[in-house]
Specification:
seven-stranded parallel β-sheet; 16% strand; globular
Length: 339
C-alpha cells in the first residue's frame, strides 16, 4: 500500500513522526511525505529531522503566506499534481491547518480515500480558520481517527459515525513519551536568574491576541503580576506587535528567541506552570504534569478543562493574576507526573 502524508507545519511533523516510525517498520506500506511549506521554520534544517528521528519530505511545495483562500487553493493545485504522479492508495492528513484541508480536498476530488488524524476536535468557534478546516476535513474523510471520546461524540452529532470512525488516542502523547528523554536544556537557561520548576512558561502567538491591542496588553499586565519569573519564547512577529502596541514587558519576564522542539519539551517538563494560547502546548503541559492557563476564550481540548487540568482565562486580567498565584490543575495532572 502506498500512503501519502500531507503536512505543512512543524507541529504536524512531530505528530506525523509518531506514525511514520510505525509505518517504517512495515514491509507492506510505502510512505510518501509532502510538505506544503505552509509555515516557514528556520529550525527545520537537516539537524531538525535527524535529532527528532523524522523522515525528510519527499516533496517540498514551498507554499506559504497569502490569504487563507489563496494559500489553500495553491496547495490544492500542487498536491493534486503530486497525487496524479504518485497514485497513492490513501492520503493521510493531520490536525487543522490549511494544508490539512488542501490535502483532503485534493484527494477526495480524485476519489482517493482520506484518513484524518485528530478527527472530531471542535472549539465551536467558526471564526477560527482551524475550526472550518477541521469540520470540512472530517466530512471529506474516509477514515477518521479521533483522540478522545468527546471527539467521537462531536462527530456523531454531525452524522459521522460507523466503523470508519475510531478512537485511537492522541499521537501527541506518544510523541511526549518518545521525546521526553531526548529533551535538551536551552543553552541560555543557566544565564537566567531562575531555577528549574520555579518559573512560568508562556507562549503567545495567536492573532486574536497579538493583533488586538486591548487583549495583548491585558495578557501582559496579568503576567506581570506573577510572583514567579516568566520565560517567554517569542516569534519576531509577536515581538513586533509588542512594539506596535506600546507594551513594555515587566521585569519578571525573560523574553527569548523561539526554541527548538527538544528545548521546548525540556521547558515544559521543568516549569511550574504553563500559560499559552497554543493548542498543542495545552496538551503537552498536561502530558508533562503541569497545570495550564489558556489565554483563549475557547479550546478544542475541552476534556482538559472538564477535569481541571486546564483553565480558560482568555485575556481577563483578574483571572490571569489569580491563577498565576494559585494555579489549579496540579491534582488533575498528578497521575501523569508520576509516569
Amino acid at each position: 500500500m502506498k500512503l501519502l502524508t500531507v503536512i505543512g507545519a512543524r507541529p504536524q511533523f512531530i505528530k506525523a513522526a509518531t506514525v511514520s516510525r510505525a509505518v517504517a517498520g512495515r514491509d507492506d506500506v510505502n510512505e510518501v511525505i509532502v510538505h506544503t511549506g505552509q509555515h516557514y521554520d528556520a529550525n527545520m534544517s537537516d539537524v531538525f529531522f535527524e535529532e527528532l528521528s523524522i523522515p525528510k519530505p519527499n516533496y517540498h511545495l514551498g507554499i506559504g503566506g497569502g490569504s487563507h483562500g489563496k494559500m489553500t487553493g495553491r496547495q490544492m493545485e500542487e498536491i493534486e499534481s503530486v497525487l496524479l504522479k504518485e497514485s497513492p492508495d490513501v492520503v493521510l492528513v493531520y490536525g487543522d491547518t490549511n494544508s490539512t484541508l488542501a490535502g483532503a480536498l485534493a484527494a477526495v476530488k480524485l476519489h482517493i480515500p482520506v484518513a484524518h488524524v485528530e478527527a472530531g476536535l471542535r472549539s465551536f468557534n467558526k471564526k477560527m480558520p482551524e475550526e472550518i478546516n477541521r469540520i470540512l476535513t472530517d466530512h471529506a474523510s474516509t477514515s477518521l481517527f479521533a483522540p478522545t471520546q468527546t471527539a467521537i461524540k462531536n462527530l456523531s452529532s454531525e452524522g459521522i459515525c460507523g466503523d470508519h470512525v475510531q478512537m485511537v488516542g492522541d499521537v501527541m502523547y506518544d510523541a511526549a513519551l518518545f521525546y521526553r528523554d531526548r529533551a535538551r536544556k536551552p543553552s541560555w537557561f543557566e544565564e537566567l536568574p531562575i531555577s528549574e520548576n520555579e518559573f512560568v512558561l508562556a507562549t503567545i502567538h495567536r492573532a486574536e491576541n497579538t493583533d488586538n491591542p486591548q487583549r495583548f496588553a491585558a495578557i501582559f499586565a496579568g503576567l506581570a503580576q506573577s510572583e514567579k519569573s516568566i520565560v517567554l519564547p517569542l516569534h519576531p512577529r509577536t515581538r513586533a506587535r509588542l512594539k506596535d502596541h506600546g507594551i513594555q514587558p515587566s521585569d519578571n519576564m525573560h523574553i527569548v528567541d523561539p526554541v527548538g522542539y527538544l528545548e521546548m519539551v525540556w521547558l515544559e517538563a521543568h516549569c511550574a506552570l504553563v500559560a499559552t494560547d497554543s493548542g498543542g502546548v495545552q496538551k503537552e503541559a498536561y502530558f508533562h504534569g503541569k497545570p495550564c492557563i489558556t489565554l483563549r476564550d475557547e479550546t478544542e481540548w475541552v476534556e482538559l478543562v472538564e477535569i481541571g487540568a486546564n483553565v480558560l482565562v482568555g485575556a481577563q486580567f483578574d483571572a490571569i493574576t489569580s491563577l498565576l498565584k494559585n494555579p489549579r490543575g496540579s491534582r488533575a495532572t498528578e497521575n501523569l507526573r508520576r509516569r
